[in-house]
Design brief:
This protein is an alpha+beta fold. Among the domains are: 3-105, Immunoglobulins (Immunoglobulin-like), CATH 2.60.40.10; 109-305, Sandwich (Jelly Rolls); 311-423, Sandwich (Jelly Rolls), CATH 2.60.120; 783-886, Maltose phosphorylase, domain 3 (Sandwich), CATH 2.60.420. The chain has 15 helices and 46 strands. Strands 19, 20, 24, 25, 26, 27, 28, 29, 30 and 31 form a ten-stranded mixed sheet that branches. Strands 2, 4, 5, 6, 7 and 8 form a six-stranded mixed sheet that branches. A six-stranded antiparallel sheet has the order 13-12-15-10-18-21. Strand 37 and strand 38 form a beta hairpin. The mean pLDDT is 96. The structure holds beta-D-glucopyranose. The site of beta-D-glucopyranose has 11 residues, from helix 3. Residues 459-460, 465, 469, 471-472, 585, 588, 761, 766, 768 line the site of beta-D-glucopyranose (BGC). This is alpha-L-rhamnosidase. One of its GO terms (biological process) is carbohydrate metabolic process. Residues 782-854 form the Alpha-L-rhamnosidase C-terminal domain. It is an enzyme of class 3 (hydrolase). One of its GO terms (molecular function) is alpha-L-rhamnosidase activity.
């Protein structure tokens, strides 16, 4: 039986708000092996029953089942569409129509009649209070109504309600973008929420990233000094005609019970100020005031569609602790990002105060110092009306522990839960092996992702920073994309990267860029706010990584000018391919830094040139993928020239690499900058540099991500495993042994003697070093894609077996279906190991299984292996396979 599963639209099962026809993909199910699609047919309909088909592709002879782009389809605004697919395969089988996947079309900015409205006065620019806005709209004849769709956004943050009910699952909407260029609106279907007659529509609005106090420099009003809300309701009648209602001066507004709310500092809420029925039709609005229309550029409104922030999970407390200092603390057992929800009873005016934090100090007391100026504090005043259930709205905290500073009556852990917030993304990675510490490391990497993918990829979620540091996002992109479906998340952020690029192509250190605006009095940033090697290279590496992982040319096309501008920036600042520009972070926080310094020992000119070559190479490949032959040739030539300069500058005639650091050797090897004749010497020196530290790394942000790759790709797999499995300081597993539940910013966040790194910069939820996750999937499990057929259309399976593990199993849910690699090792004889390798290859893909040349094959499932490139290889079609061999 041939069936279709998981039809996706822009890689999501359902899209709410999309302004042009989304990219379509599907997975194939069959009870046969070696299944390859031979043709597809796709229909687009206005209804789920497919009685109003607006497009039919007819039968298309084509093997692609991902990244199908359809041009020339004009979408009507604000209505549902449904897509279904049927296919045939190489076994002569024909599928039925798939289940339909639906999307709601968006409303391009120039079609908005609604206005931005506010009840904040211009004099309230220093306030971070909340406001409420409301209005009613009438539905005359329900039988005539086909759908009621709303599109909404804000300058600030908003929560939307219809007839007293919260609309949708989104939190912290509209998220954080380069607001002046790119403001996202969210789209919801209200059809089931509205009734005949009057309906109430209402919004609660807060300051958020738009207006609140942000960055370590603590300045406010980066984008504007007045919050505002905008929404457009589109009622589509059965005859296809549309009626529109939206925000305008007829709306009413008032102050909300949110007295204060900011991203870093938390929320102050007075439940005594709640207005009964404020979001329902029956509300006494006598004291409400008229909203004002405020200026706002509707031309920058764009549909978000998918990957909004939501409450994804809820964790129960693990323990209630009384610290030696007498503080009552709830331990959720997991460092996370979100907020605490609680239930409380008491008298009107009673108070709840919560402080959120990540770690206890060496004595086991509350530790707030590493939050710097971020208060992470909740102040709630009770209304006294029975049981009150509450959580904040316009803030989030990074925490494992909550100090209950004030609470009416006895503190009972059951009244608290931790709500985990992050951008909604499908989970795509699973990893388990026989080493429990490694499993915990994988867990910590995943929670580092969850904690820092809150609308933008942030460095950390707790201190007064939480910024979209480009370097961190670059380093972690591939790992993140094994763990979760990141395409929409990163595509959104990359758009902002482009918007915030300087006219010359410079890439800001953080995206959205707020540092260039008000941070010139900061000691570090006064030296430069954009264009640091490895950070700015996110402009090229991230789109390329998405292309590798998803095979999607849309994002590559979207980012192409941005990628090119960044290469040109480096070229403009280069002499003999050696470029430099103001502030460089180098091998940030490497342990070979001078005492007390953040800057590692690897010279900046080496890091700059190494990344210049790498980004130029990837850009040339992107040009080729997009069919731009002229750029491909130009930038391939530039790349060769940079490599040449690098070799002349950094290698002595006898092959010594001038900078004797681990990171310099890692970059040279991984970025292919080593002359062939010197490769053996370079790898030997890297191994020596490891041995000098007793097998430990001393690398920072730049060298660490590629360390194990540089070893395992150069015949030193056992050193890679040894490095990974070290569990004394400094190492990945040192933190695991110390009880970490996320990844630390510093190898010595908590030092072996129990003291901590300076509170100036000591996050316990920083995903950067979690970039080792890529090695777990791509090397240890060996699940990789072929860049000629990216997105796992052609899979490369080349597990790096080692580390005394007896088994390892990883699953990657590609668009085509699950790719599974499961290896088991049994010691046999003196040195020989017996390996059993089980592999699942999804339909409509092929996989090349690559085993070591020296292996003795025992069982091959009737697959013929041959010796190619000093390896033992076989290419297989879809299905499940079991291979056994001796090593
Ligand atoms: C951040 C880093 C970031 C760095 C720039 C720090 O404050 O937390 O992760 O990349 O600054 O060097």
């Amino acid at each position: 039986m041939l069936t279709i599963q998981n039809v996706t639209l822009n890689y999501a099962p359902e899209l709410h708000g999309v302004e042009s026809m989304p990219v379509v993909g599907w997975a194939i199910n069959s009870d046969r092996k070696n299944v390859e699609q031979t043709s597809w047919q796709l229909q687009l309909s206005r209804d789920a029953a497919f009685s109003q088909i607006v497009f039919d592709s007819g039968k298309v002879a084509d093997d692609r089942s991902q990244n199908i782009t359809l041009s020339g389809i004009e979408l009507a605004p604000s209505v549902w569409y449904f897509v279904r697919v049927k296919i045939s395969d190489n076994h002569g089988q024909q599928s039925d129509w798939s289940e339909a996947a639906g999307f709601i079309s968006g409303l391009p900015g120039d079609q908005w009649q609604a206005e931005f409205i506010s009840v904040e006065g211009p004099e309230e620019k220093d306030s971070s209070k909340g406001t409420l806005l409301r209005n009613t709209f009438a539905i005359e004849d329900a039988a005539e109504v086909a759908s009621v769709i709303v599109h909404a956004s804000a300058l600030g943050l908003y929560k939307l309600y219809v007839n007293g009910q919260k609309v949708g699952q989104d939190e912290l909407a509209p998220g954080w973008t380069s607001y002046h260029h790119h403001l996202l609106y969210q789209t919801y279907d209200l059809t089931a929420l509205v009734t005949v007659g009057d309906n109430a529509i209402a919004a609660s609005v807060g300051a958020g990233w738009y207006k609140g106090d942000m960055s370590f420099n603590r300045k406010r009003n980066y984008y504007g000094d007045r919050t505002a809300f905008i929404c457009q309701i589109v009622v589509t009648l059965r005859d296809g005609s549309q009626r529109r209602y939206g925000t305008d001066a007829s709306w009413l507004g008032t102050d909300s019970p949110v007295l204060f709310s900011e991203i870093y500092d938390g929320e102050v809420y007075d439940a005594r100020r709640e207005i009964p029925g404020w979001h329902s039709v029956d509300c006494d609005t006598a004291r409400w005031r008229q909203a004002e229309v405020v200026a706002g550029n509707k031309g920058v409104l764009h549909a978000q569609g998918a990957s909004t922030v939501q409450a994804i999970d809820t964790l129960a407390p693990q323990a209630l602790i009384v610290t030696p200092r007498g503080e009552t603390v709830i331990d959720f057992g997991q460092n996370l990002t979100g907020w605490v929800a609680f239930r409380v009873r008491g008298r009107a005016g009673d108070k709840v105060t919560l402080r959120h934090f990540e770690v206890l100090d060496a004595e086991g007391n509350v530790y707030l110092d590493n939050l710097r100026t971020a208060k992470q504090r909740i102040d709630y005043t009770l209304s006294g009306a029975g049981e009150e259930a509450w959580h904040p709205s316009f803030t989030f905290q990074g925490f494992r522990y909550v100090h209950v500073e004030c609470w009416p009556g006895e503190i009972n852990a059951e009244n608290f839960s931790a709500v985990v917030l992050h951008s909604q993304m499908a989970s795509t990675g699973e990893f388990a092996c026989s080493n429990p510490s490694l499993n915990q490391l994988h867990h910590n990497i995943l929670w580092g992702l969850k904690g820092n993918f809150v609308d933008v990829p942030t460095d950390c979620p707790q201190r007064d920073e939480r910024l979209g540091w480009t370097g961190d996002a670059q380093i972690f992109c591939r790992t993140a994309s094994y763990l979760m479906q990141t395409r929409n998340f990163f595509a959104k952020w990359l758009r902002d990267l482009h918007y915030d690029q300087t006219a010359e192509g410079g890439v800001p250190h953080v995206v959205p860029d707020i540092l260039s605006k008000k941070c010139d009095d900061n000691w570090l940033l006064s030296q430069g706010t954009h264009s640091a090697a490895a950070w700015a290279d996110a402009a090229v590496i991230n789109p390329w990584t998405l292309y590798l992982m998803y095979g999607d040319k849309e994002v590559l096309r979207q980012q192409y000018p941005s990628m090119k501008a960044w290469i040109e920036f480096m070229r403009a600042h280069a002499v003999d391919n050696k470029w430099s520009y103001k502030l460089q972070f180098g091998d940030w926080v490497a342990l070979d830094a001078k005492e007390g310094s953040y800057f590692g020992a690897t010279p900046n000119d080496l890091t700059c040139m190494a990344y210049y070559s790498w980004s130029t190479l990837l850009f040339a490949k992107a040009a080729k993928a997009l069919g731009n032959q002229a750029d491909y040739e130009t930038y391939s030539a530039l790349h060769r020239d940079i490599v040449d300069s690098f070799q002349r500058e950094f290698f002595t005639p006898t092959g010594r690499l001038a900078a004797r650091t681990q990171t310099a050797h890692i970059l040279a090897l991984y970025f292919n900058l080593v002359p062939d004749a010197f490769r053996a010497r370079t790898i030997d020196t890297l191994v020596e540099l490891l041995a000098e530290h007793d097998g430990h790394l001393v690398t920072g942000f730049v060298g660490t991500p590629y360390f194990c790759h540089a070893l395992s790709e150069n015949g030193r797999a056992s050193e890679a495993w040894q490095l990974l499995l070290k569990d004394d300081f400094p190492s990945w597993l040192y933190q695991v042994k110390a009880g970490a539940t996320t990844i630390w910013e510093h190898w010595d966040g908590i030092k072996p003697d129990g003291t901590m790194w300076s509170p100036d910069m000591n996050s316990f939820n920083h995903y950067a070093y979690g970039a080792i996750g890529e090695w777990l999937y791509r090397a240890a499990a060996g699940i990789d894609t072929d860049e000629e057929q990216p997105g796992f259309k052609h899979i490369r399976i080349k597990p790096v077996i080692g580390g005394d593990l007896t088994w390892l199993k990883a699953r990657y849910r590609s668009g085509y279906g699950d790719i599974v690699v499961h290896w088991q090792v049994e010691p046999g004889g003196d040195t020989q190991r017996h390996v059993e390798l089980r592999v699942t290859v999804p339909h409509n893909t092929r996989a090349t299984v690559i085993l070591p040349a020296e292996c003795q094959l025992m069982a091959t499932d009737n697959i013929a292996f041959s010796a190619i490139n000093n390896e033992c290889q076989a290419t297989v079609g879809s299905g499940e396979y079991r291979f056994a061999y001796r090593l």
